[in-house]
Amino acid sequence: MQITHRLDTIFAALADxxxxxxxxRLAAGEASVTELAQPFAMSQPAISKHLKVLERAGxxxxxxxxxxxxxxxxxxxLGEATKWLERYRRLWEGNYRRLDALLDDLKTNPPTPGDxx
Amino acid sequence: MNAGSLQLTTPGERELVMTxxxxxxxxxxxxxxxxxxxxxxxxxxxxxxxxxxxxxxxRVGGKYRYLWQHDRDGTKMGMGGVYREIVAPERIVNTxxxxxxxxxxxxxxxxxxxEQGGTTTLTYTMRxxxxxxxxxxIKSNMESGVAASYHRLAELLASTPARGRA
Lengths: 117, 166
Fold this sequence. Notes:
The structure holds 2 protein chains of 2 kinds.
Chain A: H1 2-14, H2 17-27, H3 33-37, H4 44-56, E1 60-62, E2 71-73, H5 75-108
Antiparallel strand pairs in A: 1-2
Helix pairs in contact in A: 1-4
Chain B: E1 7-9, E2 15-22, H1 26-34, H2 36-39, E3 49-56, E4 63-70, E5 76-87, E6 91-98, E7 107-116, E8 119-128, H3 131-139, H4 147-158
Antiparallel strand pairs in B: 1-2, 2-8, 3-4, 4-5, 5-6, 6-7, 7-8
């Protein structure tokens, strides 16, 4: 349940395009709030608000430099979220592999037309 | 793209598209999606689940109903919807809603089958009604592991450029 709750927070954080763009920027290296605000044409308080959501989700943390207080990406946390994507992909690959087998079966034993319609 | 390789793409904010090639004529792929005794042989999800209910009324305005059950603990998960468009054997559009209605509105699923040289390319597009629906799905309890949740997650993650860092 704990991990589920955290995933909720993570996906809620990821739901916003600005926050996704911030993560993309941080994937290229840590950056201060000022640096992050520049490409977004947003005020620093607005960016700070987004950063707070990302920090609460554990996706972003603060660096050591007390002056710049750079933010950086926490890839491990993002990894928890991508595990769900992998589960999803596995689920459908499992389904479609079964469908492959079924189709092979149908090719050798064609269904009688209209037998269940 | 080889048979067996599932592609996930996100052409829009509310959409998720799955593409997969099958080494079979599309009539068979269509049958496998529309005849209950065939559907329940493959549309099962993770190991340990079976599909005791699979009802399909294959006509525009007709309903379908799926119910899965976990073989060991008996957990049930159901979904259903209405057929909006049927062009056999190439296209089906249907609404899709899980019993645990944790998001407003319905999702719309579009299945398109294209046959070329004896193989069939399946494209399945899931489209949610609104951003609000998407956000509700995101905020919902993921523990249920409902397939539609996965759709939303996949869309989000696929549209997150930083995911490769994970």
